Amino acid sequence: MKKVLVMVIVAMATLSSAFALDLHEYKVFYKLNNETTFRSLNRYLKLNDCQQKNLKSEFQLTEERIRTAVNTENEVAAEKAMNSSLASLKEILTDEQYEKFVTVLNATIEYNREIKYLAAE
Known about the structure:
Elements: H1 2-19, H2 35-45, H3 49-71, H4 75-92, H5 95-120
């Protein structure tokens, strides 16, 4: 029971960090539609053909929405686009695939934050 509680706390911390983004950090969603990134994600998540097609179209839609939000400096629209995308992905992916995806997304965002921090020093 203790292990389950710890896992839930870690999962909540991981999810909450994805939602606390600066406007420029939403740009990480642009990379999801990149062919190399998509192929790597496909291999990692072991997507079937239907999931690949749905993910590709969802990533394109998300990129358009977030690009518009970032260009107009609209944080509310960017957050809404991200939340909508995550909700759609939750329906497309299995629970295990979704957890892996969110983990990779959070790791990428955190990596970008560290690079930005190191560059500022």
